[in-house]
């Protein structure tokens, strides 16, 4: 694994040396050669980036004791590549403007582009945050709507329960009225029976008294 990493490092050293040599030739090359060199340099930058990615993958598999040292070395390679890429951009901009732009102006233009890029990134982040807030608000709205629908269903169910209870109360009231009428009729019949029994009792007493009186009178 370490031998493969060393191979990548050697390849990186050779490629960066070749890149630096081509970059030096760029300012002295004619129009046709400059176009060819620009294409080669741009392609070589991508190859160097891929080479650094391969180094990163190899470092992940090495022992933990030596990993920090190797990562530091790869970070230095990455910083060097960033410097070469920046220098390439300056050379490219200088040649594309036929030498009419100074390095100060180039740095100013690059800074302006970076500032515009940063503004675009900030705007994108703000838009994303706003979008997330809208999504969150919409989710809360849906939850609130669900809660409202549940409350309406509960109220409808309670309304049906109350209506059923009222219907049962009316039935009970009807039954109570019927029972009251039946009980009144039974009490009236009971009073009639009492009157009849009392009349029969009085009649029996009269008959008994009359019989006793008749018997006494006849014996004399």
UniProtKB/TrEMBL annotation:
<dbReference type="Pfam" id="PF05008">
    <property type="entry name" value="V-SNARE"/>
</dbReference>
<protein>
    <submittedName>
        <fullName>Putative vesicle transport v-snare protein vti1a</fullName>
    </submittedName>
</protein>
<dbReference type="GO" id="GO:0048280">
    <property type="term" value="P:vesicle fusion with Golgi apparatus"/>
</dbReference>
<dbReference type="GO" id="GO:0005789">
    <property type="term" value="C:endoplasmic reticulum membrane"/>
</dbReference>
<dbReference type="GO" id="GO:0016236">
    <property type="term" value="P:macroautophagy"/>
</dbReference>
<feature type="coiled-coil region">
    <location>
        <begin position="34"/>
        <end position="133"/>
    </location>
</feature>
<keyword id="KW-0812">Transmembrane</keyword>
<dbReference type="InterPro" id="IPR007705">
    <property type="entry name" value="Vesicle_trsprt_v-SNARE_N"/>
</dbReference>
<dbReference type="GO" id="GO:0042147">
    <property type="term" value="P:retrograde transport, endosome to Golgi"/>
</dbReference>
<keyword id="KW-0653">Protein transport</keyword>
<dbReference type="GO" id="GO:0005794">
    <property type="term" value="C:Golgi apparatus"/>
</dbReference>
<dbReference type="GO" id="GO:0031201">
    <property type="term" value="C:SNARE complex"/>
</dbReference>
<dbReference type="GO" id="GO:0000149">
    <property type="term" value="F:SNARE binding"/>
</dbReference>
<keyword id="KW-0813">Transport</keyword>
<dbReference type="GO" id="GO:0006896">
    <property type="term" value="P:Golgi to vacuole transport"/>
</dbReference>
<dbReference type="GO" id="GO:0006886">
    <property type="term" value="P:intracellular protein transport"/>
</dbReference>
<dbReference type="InterPro" id="IPR010989">
    <property type="entry name" value="SNARE"/>
</dbReference>
<dbReference type="GO" id="GO:0005829">
    <property type="term" value="C:cytosol"/>
</dbReference>
<dbReference type="Pfam" id="PF12352">
    <property type="entry name" value="V-SNARE_C"/>
</dbReference>
<feature type="domain" description="Vesicle transport v-SNARE N-terminal">
    <location>
        <begin position="1"/>
        <end position="90"/>
    </location>
</feature>
<dbReference type="InterPro" id="IPR027027">
    <property type="entry name" value="GOSR2/Membrin/Bos1"/>
</dbReference>
<comment type="similarity">
    <text>Belongs to the VTI1 family.</text>
</comment>
<dbReference type="InterPro" id="IPR038407">
    <property type="entry name" value="v-SNARE_N_sf"/>
</dbReference>
<keyword id="KW-0175">Coiled coil</keyword>
<dbReference type="GO" id="GO:0031902">
    <property type="term" value="C:late endosome membrane"/>
</dbReference>
<keyword id="KW-0472">Membrane</keyword>
<keyword id="KW-1133">Transmembrane helix</keyword>
<feature type="transmembrane region" description="Helical">
    <location>
        <begin position="195"/>
        <end position="216"/>
    </location>
</feature>
<dbReference type="GO" id="GO:0006891">
    <property type="term" value="P:intra-Golgi vesicle-mediated transport"/>
</dbReference>
<dbReference type="GO" id="GO:0012507">
    <property type="term" value="C:ER to Golgi transport vesicle membrane"/>
</dbReference>
<dbReference type="GO" id="GO:0005484">
    <property type="term" value="F:SNAP receptor activity"/>
</dbReference>
């Amino acid at each position: 694994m370490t031998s493969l990493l060393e191979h990548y490092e050697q390849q990186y050293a050779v490629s960066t040396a070749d890149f630096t040599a081509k970059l030096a030739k760029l300012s002295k090359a004619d129009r046709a050669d400059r176009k060819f060199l620009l294409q080669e340099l741009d392609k070589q930058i991508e190859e160097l980036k891929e080479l650094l990615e391969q180094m990163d993958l190899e470092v992940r598999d090495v022992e933990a004791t030596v990993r920090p040292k190797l990562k530091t070395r790869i970070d230095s390679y990455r910083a060097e590549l960033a410097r070469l890429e920046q220098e390439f951009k300056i050379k490219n901009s200088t040649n594309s403007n036929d030498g009419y732009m100074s390095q100060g102006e180039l740095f100013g233009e690059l800074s302006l582009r970076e500032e515009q890029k940063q503004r675009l990134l900030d705007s994108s982040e703000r838009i994303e945050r706003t979008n997330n807030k809208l999504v969150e608000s919409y989710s809360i709205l849906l939850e609130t709507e669900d809660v409202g629908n549940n409350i309406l269903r509960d109220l409808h169910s309670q309304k049906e329960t109350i209506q059923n209870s009222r219907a049962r109360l009316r039935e009970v009231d009807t039954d109570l009225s019927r029972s009251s009428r039946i009980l009144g009729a039974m009490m009236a019949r009971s009073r009639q029976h009492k009157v009849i029994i009392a009349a029969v009792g009085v009649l029996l007493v009269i008959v008994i008294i009359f019989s006793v009186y008749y018997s006494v009178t006849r014996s004399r």
